[in-house]
Amino acid sequence: xxxxxxxxxxxxxxxxxxxxxxxxxxxxxxxxxxxxxxxxxxxxxxxxxxxxxxxxxxxxxxxxxxxxxxxxxxxxxxxxxxxxxxxxxxxxxxxxxxxxxxxxxxxxxxxxxxxxxxxxxxxxxxxxxxxxxxxxxxxxxxxxxxxxxxxxxxxxxxxxxxxxxxxxxxxxxxxxxxxxxxxxxxxxxxxxxxxxxxxxxxxxxxxxxxxxxxxxxxxxxxxxxxxxxxxxxxxxxxxxxxxxxxxxxxxxxxxxxxxxxxxxxxxxxxxxxxxxxxxxxxxxxxxxxxxxxxxxxxxxxxxxxxxxxxxxxxxxxxxxxxxxxxxxxxxxxxxxxxxxxxxxxxxxxxxxxxxxxxxxxxxxxxxxxxxxxxxxxxxxxxxxxxxxxxxxxxxxxxxxxxxxxxxxxxxxxxxxxxxxxxxxxxxxxxxxxxxxxxxxxxxxxxxxxxxxxxxxxxxxxxxxxxxxxxxxxxxxxxxxxxxxxx
Length: 486
Fold this sequence. Notes:
The strands form six sheets. Strands 18-2-1-19-24-21-25 form a seven-stranded mixed β-sheet. It is built from nine helices and 26 strands. By secondary structure, the chain is an alpha+beta fold. Helix 4 (about 320-330) packs across helix 6 (about 405-415) and helix 4 crosses helix 7 (about 425-435). Helix 2 links the parallel strand 1 and strand 2. It has helices at about 5-30, 45-55, 270-305, 320-330, 350-360, 405-415, 425-435, 465-475, 480-485, and strands spanning about 35-40, 65-75, 105, 115, 120-125, 130-140, 150-155, 160-170, 175, 180-190, 195-200, 210, 225, 230, 240-245, 255, 255-260, 305-310, 335-340, 345, 365-370, 370-375, 395-400, 405, 440-445, 460.
C-alpha cells in the first residue's frame, strides 16, 4: 500500500470513529424530560434574565430545557403608522395627501353576480381613523330605481344597536352615483376602532341588492375597510346575527354604501411638518431595531437558548410563532412533555413536573394539562377580536400562562402545520386545532388565567419585572408574599 493510500484510509477511519463517538454520546447524554417554551418579545431582555435564572434554579431531578421563542424580524412600522396595535401592517391612509379634507365613497366596480335575500342583509366594516358619516347609499341593480320601500341602517356591530338610518321609498329615491343612490343623513362621527354593519331591509328577488365578484373592489381610502362576506337574518327590524362567506365569492359582497369625511384633519394641516415627524419616527425605530439586533446576538452567544422563528414581531403573529416552535420540537429527541408559557409569567416548574410524574403513571400520550376555558364566547373587537372562526364560542382551550402537551400531540401539530388555519390567539388557535383529535384534557386550576398570587399556584400571567423577581425568588408561594405583592 502506498503512503498516499495509507493516509486516505487513516483519515476515513478517523472520520468514522468520530461519527460513532458522536452517536454514542447522543445515546448516553441525558435527554430533556420537559421542554419549556417561552413566548418572548424581542425587546424583553430583563424578563428573559429573570425567567432564565428563576426556572433553571428550581430544584428538579428531571432535566429541563428552556427555549425562548423570538420573532426573527422586528416590525419596522412605528405604532402611530400601523393599521392597529396588534398587527405589523401599514396604515394606508397615512400615505395619502392631507392638504385638504376629502370625502370618500365606498364603491363597487365589477360586473357582478347578484344574490337575493328574504330578510335584512349587510356588510361589516371597521373604522381606522375618526370619520363623519354624511350620506347612506343603496345599490341600484339596473340604475333604474327601486321597487318597494327599502331602508339602510348603520349598526354598531358590537352592541347591535342602530346608529343612523335612511329610507328609500320612491321609485328613484336618492342621488345616483356609480350604481348607488345616496341620501344625506344627519352627520355622525364614528371613532377609530368602531366596528359597524351596513344593513339593508326590504330587498326582494325582483330587485336584488347583493352583488359580488372575484374582480370587485371596495375602497375606503385606508380610513375604513370592509370585511369579506355578508350577514343576514329572517327577522325584519333586528340586527342580522348570521354571517356567511359565499363559497363562490372571493371578494366583497356589496349591498349598501356610505359617504364620509375625515374628522379632525383640517385644510390647514402642515404636510411638511407631518412628513418630517413621520420620517423621524421611522428612522428612530430603525436605529432602535439595529441596537436590539446586536443585543439579541450577544444574548444568544452567551446563553444559546433563543429560538428565532421566521415571523415578524406582532401580537397576531403568536400562533404562527408557536407553530414554528412545535415544528422545531418535533425534530428534538428524548423529551416527553412541553410546557408553554410567556415571558411575563411565573411558572413553578418543580410543581408541574411533580404533577406530570403522577399523571405519567397512567400513560404519557394524548395529554393536555392546564386550566381550561369552556364555551368561551368570541370577542368581536379589541385585542382578542376573532374574525375567522365562525362559531359563537371556542372549543375548550387552556389559558396561555401555562399549559403542558405530551410529545405525541406536538408531533401531530407539526405533521399538520401546513393545513392548520391561524386564528387570533395562540391559545384559542390551539383549542380549535386540537378539537380535531380530542386530547385528554386534565384541568388544574392552579394554572392561573389572570394576574394573581395564590399559595400553591403553578403559573401566573401579566407580572411586571418586580413581581417576577419576587415570585422566582420565593418559588414556594406563601400568603405573606402574595400580600406583599398586592
